[in-house]
Design goal:
Layout lengths: L6 H4 L4 H14 L5 E2 L14 H9 L14 H13 L10 E4 H13 L5 E6 L3 H9 L3 E8 L5 E2 L1 H6 L5 E7 L11 H14 L2 E5 L16 H4 L5 E6 L11 E6 L1 H6 L2 H11 L11 H6 L3 H23 L3 E2 L8 E2 L2 E2 L6 H12 L1 E2 L1 E2 L12 E4 L4 H18 L1
Parallel strand pairs: 1-13, 3-4, 3-6, 6-7, 7-8
Antiparallel strand pairs: 2-9, 4-5, 8-9, 10-12, 11-15, 14-15
Helix pairs in contact: 5-6, 5-11, 13-15, 14-15
Length: 397
Amino acid sequence: MFFKASKRSEKVSYAIRDIVVEASKLEKQGKKVLYLNIGDPLKYDFRTPEHLWKAVFDSKQKGESYAPSEGIKEAREAIAENFNRKGMRVEPENVLLGNGSSELIWFAMSCVANPGESILLPRPCYPVYSAALPFYDVEEKYYDLDESRGWQPDIESIRKNIDKKTKAIVVINPNNPTGTNYSKKTLEEIISIAAEHKLVIFSDEIYDELLLDEKEKHYCMGALAKDVPVIVANGLSKNYLATGFRMGWIAPNEFLLQNSDIMDAISRLARARLCAVHPFQYAIKPALEGSKKHIKDAVKKLRKRRDYSVKRLNEIKGISCQKPNAAFYAFPKIELPVKDDKEFALGLLREKGVCVVHGSGFGQKQGTKHFRIVILPPLNILEEAFNKIEEFARSLR
């Protein structure tokens, strides 16, 4: 007898790590692989700030037990104060910690909509959302990001994809995979649409301090929205270069608390999994209240790598790239004779040993082909990778 996995599990895929399976096969055959696929600064030349590690080690004895399901008091107080500085009024008791923001995204997606209802996602979109929704039998609907406008959300696309089943809009700002920081005008337009259609906004702001241009300003969705329910997600992984700590959090704005029981539902799920990893919760307060020098240093490095990456990509015939202004990604367009972008990504990996993620793994506007790269590697690695991408593109032409 063959014991088959559930049909529900078949709906889940995650392109960013799925491509690594193929890369690992090549490495076992002795082939060198340059990884431009994973958004993990610690895989390159970035390090977690020492004061975060010190806080964890100094709290070793306290962190040996289970923590409260919602998170430790000092971390929740620091997070609430951080939101208050951004203009979003939050009380510590309404903050919920998770094992990375990804865990809380899964919790939230299951509590915002019922099976058969829909949630509106950006296209392209970080694939944890498109993995979670079908798992819960919630319909995925998409609104496009406008490549010609630097990947800002297409407001008309949002409007035309809302129907009676739509319960929420997901906003990822700054965006993964495009590296775009949204304008205040765009965010206000999304809030207006959500108010008109009585929708919840889930705002993923995990890259909000990694702004690559001095003119850029990030606007917290929960601070802008006064008459729309908003849940905001953030964490230590990206801004604080602590991906392995797996510390994420969510908080509601006041309107959601007063008009919804969604946070109560998410908290029930959190209690069922006991708690987020305890020792690393002690890094949250020093991260949010301590030195931010590592962010300035990281942005300085990323700006140089972004500028070099965009220049090189746009010099390759058949590839073009909008300039990202936040996070550490770029989402180049492919205009080469390939069937689709997955064929491009697999061909690039097998023939040149460069690992990127096919754009269709994030969803994209119909009829277009893209791939995502991270701009995290040092310039010498990026140079080697772009030389190989250029060679591969030339071979396709």
